[in-house]
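Continuing from yesterday's entry. The apo prediction looked reasonable, so today I'm repeating it with thiamine diphosphate included to see how the binding region is handled. Same sequence as before; SMILES copied from the compound registry.
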Amino acid sequence: MMHGMLSILSLLVENRPGVLFKVTHMFRSRNFNITSISVGETSDSNFSRMTITTNGNEKQVNQIAKQLDKMIDVIKVEKLDEHSTIYRELILFKIKISSSEDNRKINDLARAYNGTIHAVRKNSIIVEMTATPEQINAFENLVKPFGILQTARTGMAALLRGNDV
Amino acid sequence: METMSGSAALMRSMEKDGVKQVFGLPGGANLPMYDELFKSNIRHILVRHEQSAAHMADGFGRVSRKPGVCFATSGPGATNILTGLATAQADSAPMVAVTGQVPVKMIGRDAFQESDIIGMSNPVVKYAFQPRKPEEMPLAVQRGFYIAETGRPGPVLIDVPKDVQENKAPMEFPEEFQMRGYHPWMDPDVTGIERAINMLLSSTKPIILAGGGTIISSAFAELQAIAEMLGIPVVTTFKGKGAFPETHPLSMGPIGMHGHAEANKIMIEADCVLAIGTRFSDRSVGTVEDFEKQLKIIHIDVDPAEIGKNQTASVAIVGDVRASLRIMLSLLGKKAKHEDTVWRKHAAEVKSYWRDNLKIHSGEMSAARILRKLREVLPKESIVTTEVGQHQMWASLFFDVIQPGTFFSSTGLGTMGWGFPAAIGAKVAKPDVPVVDIAGDGSFNMTENSLATSVLEDIPVIVFLVNNFTLGMVAQWQRTFYDRRMIGVDQKHCPDYVDLAKSYGAHGTRVQSLDELGSAIKEALSSNVTTVIDIPIDPEEDVLPFVAPGTPLKDMILPS
Ligand SMILES: Cc1ncc(C[n+]2csc(CCOP(=O)(O)OP(=O)(O)O)c2C)c(N)n1
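Holo prediction written out below.
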């Protein structure tokens, strides 16, 4: 959810064992909270990018950013502001279907939200969606009446628009 | 490229870094290191408990400002140094701890004496390394020392699996190395310093608050020059005690929970504070909200994460304290001076009032009197460490540091048992000056077995044992806040400290009067053996003034 006090931090870190532990541990030991996190190697395998969303007021988020910046394995910390950022989450929904009518309706909704249909079975269907958290939440509300059997949701991945590296 | 074992590379790198001695205790997992130590020119100082090795390294590091080194084996040896790492971290002391670890292929299998010391120590070290191949050793050691010593100093752990110690590889010892994510210094921002100067000059009741960072960066001369040029009274945090000569007319002493009455009084009247190298600990400023509401804060610190962490500054300057103060001095140059202001006179009056009128315990052997006696007899260049408790706070109140940078205490973590081993480490760093540990009986109990190290390794220090036969500070809180429900504080079943000292081959003496105390200190100063001076005092003596936890400085409790 992007409303309220959620902030996005983008970290370029050394791609080494233990770095994720140190970063998440810093949040715990400094009494901050992580709402979502996603990590992956960058095109340069020396580095990973972590995208962390956290709640907290501006002062707290500034403090988090400074503590992260101080960590030796953290190369760069950016506070991303929603408006100049592309941010996406991936979610898989397993949705109950009771009729072919359900199937058709879910297909239509998925198409409207740029989702992809997978694993169509007699009683269930899996929809994959890569979207902003708001879009995902909106889709979720629409398919809720059919019965959501399971979801698997990644953390957010985010990059600032523009030319900087 | 020379081929050698990981342990040999460790010694070679340490020698390159100028390491002359390590404090430690061997075990199965660090034997290869010890075997190389045997062959090297580095002195080994054997401890009786690894915690003391860490505290000795810490004491050495605070005095020499070069990382002290301690060695411990894997598992229990490594876990025993955790308190030492945390203590050094809390007080930004440079230190390198080298632990043994089970061989790489055994890691994660709960092998004998395996512990995940990297995981356990993460929150209490500045950085930790675990080289997995021998050829990684030189860089790990070089980086480790560099990290420990630069910027805001701190403890570094190097955990070395046994096979990495043993196996040989061609070794490279690069003179230069890159660390992408480490930026220990920033150049202080000159416009910020200009703003700070204007703010100071336009305030009518300015004050300087010097923290531990002032001591770490040795900015003594710069601090004194600025204070004198502007005629601004100086208070310190407890960690900053002695950053400014406490016998100087502008010195008001430490503020805080057990600050000097005059320091707390003047602090709460000030309208602008130049805060130097301090994190505004709760022990220093009381309740945070009250503090920042009342005055404008100029904050200088080498660590950007300290800016705005506990207090909001009006002007923040990130940079080395000494470099920043030097710029400030050069910009101040010909600017207006405060000199004989009403405020300065007022501060002097507040100080002399409280120095003359603060009630102290009536007995001859009151804490105030014995500490003043120590000050009177001790040469000004002597180094003093303390343990943790009432004696520590009495030292804060009644022992004036004359020569800046000669007073050290566990102020951040508050580790009982720190002072004595730290004194031994300090003496190794500065063998030519007297070193005294101001101790409480409870604290001394925790690491008194370091007497063996002190005697056998010929590192003589003085233990000034303020003996109240109780865990005094806890007892004081129980008397004050728990309606005298005294539990867990009685130390009656303690050893006879004179006999204890003697049984280790040290000197032990007990004194009952100030005259005896004076002679005992003089004798200890001229002796070349560690001396424990047991000074029995009244178990009911309290430390006052006192600012209760969670209250603002203005609610200071004074002796009645
Ligand atoms: C390792 C450790 N355990 C417990 C404490 C809590 N504590 C703080 S002061 C104190 C009493 C210290 O007693 P002593 O060393 O005799 O000094 P005194 O207060 O009597 O001068 C205790 C138990 C501590 N600071 N450190």
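Comparison notes:
- The mean pLDDT of chain B is 95.
- The radius of gyration of chain B is 24 Å.
Will overlay with the apo model tomorrow.
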